[in-house]
Amino acid sequence: MAFVWSTNEISKKTVTIYSTNLTLNTAACKHFENVQYVLLGVDKENNLLGIKPVDKTAIDEGIYPSDQLHRISIGKSYGRVSNKNFIENLAREYHLDLSDKQGLKYPANFDVVHQILTVNL
C-alpha cells in the first residue's frame, strides 16, 4: 500500500499580511489567548517577522516601552494586529505587493524557547 496522508489544514498556523494589519488564523491565535498586547519585529538577518505575546505581568513591570506595544484583537476564528506604518515599512523592505485585497498568506511557527510566532518572509 502507498498511502499519501493528508495534512490537517486547520492545525497549520498562518499569518496573512494585509495593507493595514496582520491577521492570524485560529491555530496561530492559541499562543495569544490571554494577552492584549504584542511586540512586532523583523529579524532582517534571517528574514523573519516576529510577533511576541506580552502578558499583563510584563506590562505592569514596564519591561517593554509602551510605544512598542501593539494591541491584538482576538475573535472566534482569527486574531488581528493593526499597524499600517509597520506594514508599509515591511512591504517596502521585502517588496511585498499588498495592493490586492486578498492579502499574502504565510505559514508561521511558534518558537517555544523565545515565545515568538515567526513568519519566514
How is this structure best described in words?
This protein is 17% helix and 38% strand. The radius of gyration is 15 Å and the shape is globular. It has 121 residues and is α+β, with helices and mostly antiparallel strands. The chain has helices spanning 26-29, 56-60, 84-94; strands at 14-17, 21-25, 37-43, 48-54, 70-74, 78-82, 104-111, 116-120.
Features:
121 residues, alpha+beta, eight-stranded antiparallel β-barrel, 3 helices, 8 strands, 17% helix, globular
Question: Gap between N and C termini, in Å?
Answer: 38 Å
Whole-number total of structural domains: 1
Q: What structural category arises from helix and sheet content? A: alpha+beta
**If you compute it from the alpha carbons, what radius of gyration comes out, rounded to the nearest whole angstrom?**
15 Å
Kindly state the percentage of residues in helix.
10-25%
Strand order of the largest sheet: 1-2-6-5-3-4-8-7
Mean pLDDT: 93
Sheet having the most strands: 8 strands, antiparallel, barrel
